[in-house]
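Field log, afternoon session.

UNIT: design team B
ACTIVITY: writing a sequence onto a fixed backbone
BACKBONE:
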C-alpha cells in the first residue's frame, strides 16, 4: 500500500452496475490509500445527463469526491442546440450544482464522427470561452492510438470494441489533433488536460512545444499501454521529460466501475511504481519498466499537486436545489429504466 498522497484524477462510472454504485470505489480507495478521486462523465453506456446525475448523487453521499460533468448534445450534429440548453447554459448549470470540472469525449473518433467531426464548432467554441474565462478545468479525451487507423497494426481488443477507423468515415488522427491544438490557439489560457498523453508518446516534441506555448495545458498519464512501452523504449529521454515537465503531468488510471479488481490493482501498481519509485515493474509488453527515480516534489506534482492547482484543494459541495432542478429539466433525455433508478434517489436524498 502506498503511503504517498495520491489523487486518482480520472475514473468513470459508466453504468449503474449490479451493486450499489455509491460504494463502488470505496474498496479501491482503501486498498491504495487514496487522498481523493475524480469521477468523470463518459456517455458510452448512457446519456451525459444520466451520467451527470449518477455523479451528482455519488458526490452528495461521498462529498470528498471530485466530479467532472459532460454536456448533453441535445441535437446531433450540433447546429441547433435550443438556446436554453446550449453548451454554455448546461455548463453554467453543472457548475451551480457543484461539478468541479468538465469532461469531454467529443474528440474520441467515434464521438467525433457522431457530432459532425468538428471540435471547433461555434457552439463548442462558446463553451471554451466560458471555461477559459472561469479557469474551470476541462479534461478531454481526443484521438486514440494512431495504430487504430491502420488495419495491420490495430490490436485485437480495439477491433472488438469497434475502435478502428479504417473505413474512411472517421476523421484522420492528424485532423483531430489539429482541431485540438486549434482550441488552444483560440483559447491560450484554457485549463485543458488531454487524457492518455494526447496519444503523443511517439511524438513528444509536439507536447514540449505545446507546454512551452500554453501555460495551463497538461496531459494525464492514463494508459494507453502503448505510452508505457514508449516510455520504456526511450527511457533516458523520458526521464528528462518527466523531470522537466512534472508540473504538466497528472496521475490517473481511467478505471471504470465494474472494472476487474486484479487488473485495476495491477495497472495502479505499474503506473505508481514508474512515477513514484526507482524500482522495476513488469509493464504492458511484459518487459521490465524502470521507475523514473524522480525527486519527491516532482512526484508530488504528478500524484496530486497539478490536479489540486487546477481543480481545487477541496471538492465543491452539491447544491441540492440546483441538482433537483437539473434532473427535472433534463428528464426528457433519460430512458424509462434510468428514470426508474433515479426517482427513488431523488425522493430519498433531495
Ligand atoms: Zn476515461
Amino acid at each position: 500500500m502506498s503511503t504517498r498522497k495520491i489523487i486518482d484524477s480520472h475514473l468513470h462510472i459508466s453504468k449503474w452496475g449490479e451493486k450499489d454504485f455509491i460504494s463502488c470505489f470505496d474498496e479501491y480507495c482503501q486498498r491504495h490509500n487514496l487522498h481523493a478521486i475524480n469521477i468523470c462523465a463518459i456517455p458510452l453506456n448512457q446519456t451525459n445527463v444520466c451520467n451527470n446525475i449518477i455523479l451528482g448523487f455519488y458526490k452528495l453521499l461521498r462529498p470528498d469526491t471530485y466530479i467532472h460533468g459532460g454536456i448533453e448534445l441535445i441535437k446531433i450534429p450540433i447546429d441547433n442546440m435550443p438556446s436554453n440548453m446550449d453548451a454554455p447554459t448546461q455548463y453554467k448549470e453543472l457548475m451551480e450544482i457543484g461539478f468541479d470540472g468538465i469532461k469531454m469525449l467529443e474528440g474520441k473518433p467515434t464521438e467525433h464522427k457522431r457530432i459532425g467531426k468538428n471540435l471547433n464548432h461555434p457552439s463548442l467554441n462558446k463553451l471554451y470561452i466560458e471555461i477559459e474565462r472561469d479557469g474551470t478545468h476541462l479534461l478531454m479525451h481526443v484521438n486514440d492510438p494512431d495504430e487504430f487507423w491502420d488495419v495491420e497494426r490495430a490490436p485485437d481488443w480495439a477491433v472488438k470494441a469497434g475502435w478502428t477507423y479504417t473505413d474512411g468515415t472517421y476523421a484522420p488522427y492528424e485532423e483531430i489533433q489539429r482541431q485540438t491544438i486549434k482550441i488552444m490557439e483560440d483559447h491560450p489560457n484554457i485549463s485543458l488536460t488531454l487524457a492518455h498523453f494526447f496519444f503523443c508518446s511517439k511524438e513528444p516534441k509536439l507536447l514540449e512545444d505545446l507546454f512551452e506555448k500554453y501555460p495551463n495545458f497538461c496531459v494525464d498519464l492514463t494508459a494507453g499501454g502503448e505510452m508505457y512501452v514508449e516510455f520504456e523504449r526511450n527511457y533516458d529521454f523520458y526521464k528528462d521529460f518527466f523531470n522537466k515537465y512534472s508540473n504538466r503531468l497528472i496521475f490517473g488510471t481511467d478505471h471504470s466501475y465494474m472494472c476487474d479488481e486484479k487488473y485495476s490493482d495491477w495497472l495502479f501498481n505499474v503506473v505508481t511504481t514508474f512515477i513514484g519509485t526507482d524500482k522495476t515493474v513488469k509493464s504492458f509488453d511484459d518487459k521490465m519498466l524502470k521507475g523514473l527515480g524522480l525527486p519527491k516534489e516532482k512526484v508530488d506534482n504528478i500524484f496530486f499537486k497539478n490536479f489540486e492547482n487546477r481543480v481545487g484543494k477541496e471538492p465543491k459541495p452539491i447544491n441540492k436545489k440546483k441538482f433537483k432542478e437539473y434532473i427535472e429539466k433534463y428528464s426528457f433525455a433519460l430512458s424509462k429504466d434510468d428514470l426508474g433508478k433515479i426517482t427513488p434517489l431523488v425522493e430519498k436524498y433531495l
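LOG NOTE: Residues 7-349 form a domain with the TIM Barrel fold (CATH 3.20.20.140).
NEXT ACTIVITY: expression trials, pending approval
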